[in-house]
Automatic annotation (TrEMBL):
Entry's EC annotation: 6.3.2.6
Superkingdom of origin: Bacteria
Record protein name field: Phosphoribosylaminoimidazole-succinocarboxamide synthase
All residue ranges annotated as the SAICAR synthetase/ADE2 N-terminal domain in the record: 6-235
SUPFAM superfamilies for this protein: SAICAR synthase-like
CDD domains the record matches: SAICAR_synt_PurC
Length: 253
Protein backbone atom coordinates (compact mmCIF):
# COMPACT_ATOMS: atom_id res chain seq x y z
CA UNK A 1 0.00 0.00 0.00
CA UNK A 2 1.40 3.40 -0.97
CA UNK A 3 2.27 5.70 1.90
CA UNK A 4 -0.59 8.12 2.51
CA UNK A 5 -1.13 11.12 4.71
CA UNK A 6 -3.00 10.31 7.89
CA UNK A 7 -5.74 12.86 8.59
CA UNK A 8 -7.21 11.50 11.81
CA UNK A 9 -7.09 8.40 14.01
CA UNK A 10 -9.95 7.46 16.29
CA UNK A 11 -10.67 4.49 18.52
CA UNK A 12 -11.89 2.22 15.72
CA UNK A 13 -10.88 3.86 12.44
CA UNK A 14 -8.16 5.84 10.67
CA UNK A 15 -8.84 8.47 8.01
CA UNK A 16 -6.29 8.96 5.25
CA UNK A 17 -6.09 11.53 2.48
CA UNK A 18 -8.15 10.35 -0.48
CA UNK A 19 -7.11 9.97 -4.12
CA UNK A 20 -9.24 12.92 -5.26
CA UNK A 21 -10.00 16.31 -3.68
CA UNK A 22 -12.95 16.06 -1.31
CA UNK A 23 -12.40 12.35 -0.60
CA UNK A 24 -10.92 10.33 2.25
CA UNK A 25 -9.98 6.69 2.76
CA UNK A 26 -11.55 5.22 5.91
CA UNK A 27 -9.62 2.29 7.41
CA UNK A 28 -11.33 -0.02 9.93
CA UNK A 29 -9.13 -1.20 12.78
CA UNK A 30 -9.49 -4.34 14.90
CA UNK A 31 -9.50 -2.29 18.11
CA UNK A 32 -12.47 -2.59 20.45
CA UNK A 33 -13.14 -0.11 23.24
CA UNK A 34 -15.80 0.35 25.88
CA UNK A 35 -16.52 2.64 28.82
CA UNK A 36 -14.86 5.61 27.12
CA UNK A 37 -11.81 3.47 26.18
CA UNK A 38 -11.21 2.29 29.77
CA UNK A 39 -11.66 -1.25 28.45
CA UNK A 40 -9.68 -2.02 25.31
CA UNK A 41 -8.85 -5.06 23.22
CA UNK A 42 -7.72 -6.12 19.79
CA UNK A 43 -10.31 -8.40 18.17
CA UNK A 44 -9.08 -10.18 15.05
CA UNK A 45 -11.39 -9.68 12.07
CA UNK A 46 -13.54 -6.96 13.63
CA UNK A 47 -12.38 -4.27 11.19
CA UNK A 48 -13.08 -6.47 8.17
CA UNK A 49 -16.58 -7.25 9.38
CA UNK A 50 -17.43 -3.64 10.23
CA UNK A 51 -16.16 -2.45 6.84
CA UNK A 52 -18.40 -4.91 5.01
CA UNK A 53 -21.41 -4.28 7.24
CA UNK A 54 -21.09 -0.50 7.05
CA UNK A 55 -20.82 -0.77 3.27
CA UNK A 56 -24.03 -2.82 3.22
CA UNK A 57 -26.00 -0.34 5.34
CA UNK A 58 -24.64 2.82 3.69
CA UNK A 59 -25.29 1.43 0.20
CA UNK A 60 -28.83 0.57 1.21
CA UNK A 61 -29.42 4.07 2.56
CA UNK A 62 -28.04 5.66 -0.61
CA UNK A 63 -30.35 3.45 -2.66
CA UNK A 64 -33.48 4.64 -0.84
CA UNK A 65 -32.47 8.30 -1.07
CA UNK A 66 -30.90 8.84 2.37
CA UNK A 67 -27.61 10.65 1.60
CA UNK A 68 -24.39 9.30 3.11
CA UNK A 69 -20.67 10.00 2.80
CA UNK A 70 -20.04 6.49 1.41
CA UNK A 71 -18.70 6.16 -2.14
CA UNK A 72 -17.36 2.59 -2.44
CA UNK A 73 -15.47 -0.13 -0.64
CA UNK A 74 -11.82 -0.30 -1.72
CA UNK A 75 -10.71 -3.55 -0.09
CA UNK A 76 -11.42 -5.68 2.96
CA UNK A 77 -10.56 -2.92 5.45
CA UNK A 78 -10.92 0.35 3.55
CA UNK A 79 -13.63 2.38 1.91
CA UNK A 80 -13.67 5.59 -0.08
CA UNK A 81 -15.80 8.33 1.46
CA UNK A 82 -16.62 11.97 0.89
CA UNK A 83 -14.90 14.44 3.15
CA UNK A 84 -17.51 16.11 5.35
CA UNK A 85 -17.64 18.64 8.16
CA UNK A 86 -18.74 16.51 11.10
CA UNK A 87 -21.32 18.08 13.40
CA UNK A 88 -19.95 17.49 16.94
CA UNK A 89 -22.97 15.46 18.02
CA UNK A 90 -23.93 11.82 18.18
CA UNK A 91 -27.53 11.24 17.16
CA UNK A 92 -29.00 8.35 19.15
CA UNK A 93 -32.24 6.60 18.22
CA UNK A 94 -33.82 4.27 20.79
CA UNK A 95 -36.61 1.78 20.12
CA UNK A 96 -36.24 -0.29 23.30
CA UNK A 97 -35.05 0.64 26.81
CA UNK A 98 -31.45 -0.49 27.22
CA UNK A 99 -28.01 0.66 28.26
CA UNK A 100 -27.65 4.11 29.76
CA UNK A 101 -31.31 5.04 29.17
CA UNK A 102 -32.55 2.08 31.20
CA UNK A 103 -30.18 2.97 34.05
CA UNK A 104 -30.91 6.69 33.88
CA UNK A 105 -34.69 6.31 34.02
CA UNK A 106 -34.95 3.13 36.07
CA UNK A 107 -36.56 1.23 33.20
CA UNK A 108 -36.42 -2.52 32.75
CA UNK A 109 -33.95 -3.41 30.02
CA UNK A 110 -35.89 -4.68 27.03
CA UNK A 111 -39.04 -2.66 27.70
CA UNK A 112 -40.42 -1.32 24.40
CA UNK A 113 -40.64 2.45 24.13
CA UNK A 114 -43.93 4.11 23.09
CA UNK A 115 -42.21 5.50 19.99
CA UNK A 116 -38.64 5.90 18.70
CA UNK A 117 -36.83 8.46 20.84
CA UNK A 118 -34.06 10.65 19.39
CA UNK A 119 -31.34 11.97 21.71
CA UNK A 120 -28.22 14.04 21.12
CA UNK A 121 -24.88 13.69 22.87
CA UNK A 122 -21.94 16.07 22.62
CA UNK A 123 -18.94 14.35 21.03
CA UNK A 124 -16.20 14.85 23.59
CA UNK A 125 -14.44 11.77 24.99
CA UNK A 126 -12.96 13.65 27.95
CA UNK A 127 -16.51 14.43 29.12
CA UNK A 128 -17.96 11.01 28.36
CA UNK A 129 -20.08 12.27 25.44
CA UNK A 130 -22.79 13.82 27.66
CA UNK A 131 -26.41 14.04 26.57
CA UNK A 132 -27.35 17.60 25.60
CA UNK A 133 -30.76 19.23 25.00
CA UNK A 134 -31.54 21.04 21.76
CA UNK A 135 -31.34 24.36 23.63
CA UNK A 136 -27.63 23.78 24.31
CA UNK A 137 -26.96 22.74 20.72
CA UNK A 138 -28.48 25.91 19.30
CA UNK A 139 -26.99 28.21 21.98
CA UNK A 140 -23.44 26.94 21.44
CA UNK A 141 -23.76 27.01 17.65
CA UNK A 142 -23.17 23.32 17.04
CA UNK A 143 -26.24 23.19 14.80
CA UNK A 144 -29.20 25.37 13.89
CA UNK A 145 -32.85 24.58 14.55
CA UNK A 146 -33.22 23.67 10.87
CA UNK A 147 -30.18 21.39 11.12
CA UNK A 148 -31.71 19.67 14.13
CA UNK A 149 -35.03 19.15 12.38
CA UNK A 150 -33.21 17.68 9.37
CA UNK A 151 -31.01 15.49 11.61
CA UNK A 152 -34.04 14.05 13.40
CA UNK A 153 -35.72 13.35 10.05
CA UNK A 154 -32.56 11.64 8.74
CA UNK A 155 -32.17 9.59 11.91
CA UNK A 156 -35.77 8.37 11.82
CA UNK A 157 -35.42 7.37 8.16
CA UNK A 158 -32.26 5.43 9.06
CA UNK A 159 -34.21 3.81 11.89
CA UNK A 160 -37.01 2.72 9.56
CA UNK A 161 -34.51 1.22 7.12
CA UNK A 162 -32.35 -0.56 9.70
CA UNK A 163 -35.35 -1.84 11.69
CA UNK A 164 -36.86 -3.40 8.58
CA UNK A 165 -33.62 -4.96 7.37
CA UNK A 166 -32.83 -6.40 10.78
CA UNK A 167 -36.35 -7.69 11.40
CA UNK A 168 -36.13 -9.55 8.11
CA UNK A 169 -33.19 -11.60 9.43
CA UNK A 170 -34.56 -12.16 12.92
CA UNK A 171 -32.76 -9.32 14.70
CA UNK A 172 -34.32 -6.59 16.84
CA UNK A 173 -32.84 -3.10 16.41
CA UNK A 174 -32.78 -1.90 20.01
CA UNK A 175 -30.95 1.37 19.44
CA UNK A 176 -28.15 2.92 17.40
CA UNK A 177 -26.11 6.07 17.04
CA UNK A 178 -24.97 7.87 13.92
CA UNK A 179 -22.90 10.90 13.09
CA UNK A 180 -23.99 13.49 10.56
CA UNK A 181 -21.81 15.75 8.46
CA UNK A 182 -22.17 18.77 6.23
CA UNK A 183 -21.21 18.72 2.56
CA UNK A 184 -20.90 22.03 0.72
CA UNK A 185 -21.50 22.56 -2.99
CA UNK A 186 -20.81 26.23 -3.48
CA UNK A 187 -23.30 28.10 -1.30
CA UNK A 188 -25.49 25.02 -0.98
CA UNK A 189 -25.12 22.81 2.11
CA UNK A 190 -26.67 19.41 2.75
CA UNK A 191 -26.52 16.97 5.62
CA UNK A 192 -25.39 13.37 5.12
CA UNK A 193 -25.02 10.30 7.32
CA UNK A 194 -21.30 9.85 8.07
CA UNK A 195 -18.85 7.76 10.12
CA UNK A 196 -20.11 4.13 10.10
CA UNK A 197 -23.12 1.94 10.78
CA UNK A 198 -22.10 -1.40 12.27
CA UNK A 199 -22.61 -3.56 15.37
CA UNK A 200 -20.14 -1.17 17.03
CA UNK A 201 -22.78 1.56 16.85
CA UNK A 202 -26.00 -0.46 17.22
CA UNK A 203 -27.62 -2.67 19.83
CA UNK A 204 -28.83 -5.81 18.10
CA UNK A 205 -30.70 -8.65 19.83
CA UNK A 206 -31.87 -11.94 18.39
CA UNK A 207 -35.66 -11.66 18.25
CA UNK A 208 -36.34 -15.18 19.57
CA UNK A 209 -33.59 -15.67 22.15
CA UNK A 210 -32.56 -12.13 23.11
CA UNK A 211 -28.93 -13.03 22.42
CA UNK A 212 -26.82 -9.89 22.05
CA UNK A 213 -25.09 -9.50 18.67
CA UNK A 214 -23.35 -6.16 19.23
CA UNK A 215 -20.58 -4.52 21.25
CA UNK A 216 -22.36 -5.36 24.52
CA UNK A 217 -20.79 -8.81 24.04
CA UNK A 218 -17.44 -7.10 24.65
CA UNK A 219 -18.69 -4.62 27.26
CA UNK A 220 -20.26 -7.34 29.39
CA UNK A 221 -17.88 -10.25 28.64
CA UNK A 222 -20.66 -12.32 27.06
CA UNK A 223 -18.50 -14.25 24.60
CA UNK A 224 -16.50 -13.77 21.42
CA UNK A 225 -17.15 -10.43 19.72
CA UNK A 226 -16.07 -11.65 16.28
CA UNK A 227 -18.54 -14.52 16.48
CA UNK A 228 -21.37 -12.08 17.28
CA UNK A 229 -20.52 -9.73 14.40
CA UNK A 230 -20.02 -12.69 12.06
CA UNK A 231 -23.53 -13.90 12.86
CA UNK A 232 -24.98 -10.51 11.88
CA UNK A 233 -22.97 -10.54 8.63
CA UNK A 234 -24.00 -14.14 7.90
CA UNK A 235 -27.70 -13.37 8.30
CA UNK A 236 -27.41 -10.31 6.05
CA UNK A 237 -25.50 -12.27 3.39
CA UNK A 238 -22.35 -10.13 3.55
CA UNK A 239 -20.00 -12.51 5.34
CA UNK A 240 -16.34 -11.96 4.30
CA UNK A 241 -14.43 -15.11 3.44
CA UNK A 242 -11.18 -14.41 5.27
CA UNK A 243 -12.34 -13.74 8.84
CA UNK A 244 -10.94 -16.21 11.35
CA UNK A 245 -12.52 -17.14 14.65
CA UNK A 246 -9.69 -18.99 16.34
CA UNK A 247 -8.01 -16.02 17.96
CA UNK A 248 -9.44 -14.74 21.22
CA UNK A 249 -9.48 -10.99 21.88
CA UNK A 250 -6.13 -9.69 23.12
CA UNK A 251 -6.54 -7.31 26.02
CA UNK A 252 -4.36 -4.21 26.04
CA UNK A 253 -3.21 -3.02 29.43
Amino acid sequence: MARRKKIYEGKAKILYEGPEPGTLVQYFKDDATAFNAEKRATVDGKGVLNNRLSEFFMTGLNTIGVPTHFIKRINMREQLIRSVEIIPLEVIVRNVAAGSMAKRLGLEEGAPLPRPIVEFSYKEDSLGDPLVPEEYIIAFGWASQQDLDDMVALALRVNDFLSGVMYGVGIKLVDFKIEIGRIYDGDFMRLVVADEISPDSCRLWDIKTGQKLDKDVFRRDLGNLTDAYTEVARRLGVLPTNVTHTTKPTLIN
